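User: Teach me something about this protein's shape.
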Amino acid sequence: MKTKTKDLRSLNPAELQKELLELLRAQFGLRMQHTTQQLSNTNQLLNVRRDIARAKTILSQKAKQS
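Assistant: First, the predicted structure itself:
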């Protein structure tokens, strides 16, 4: 679920907030899988965390511009 920065920058703040919510839900699901030892690729958790940080950064940049 790797999200590209270019794609995130093209979204408006409402869409970006929706994407962030989806990423947070994905992170929760991956954390539960990891806890119950059902997650085989733990790199997915790291990638989602980075995508969340990327989305939050762009959201705050757009808030400063407005």
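Now, about its shape. The chain has a mean pLDDT of 93. The radius of gyration is 13 Å. If you'd like, I can walk through any region in more detail.
User: That's plenty for now, thanks!
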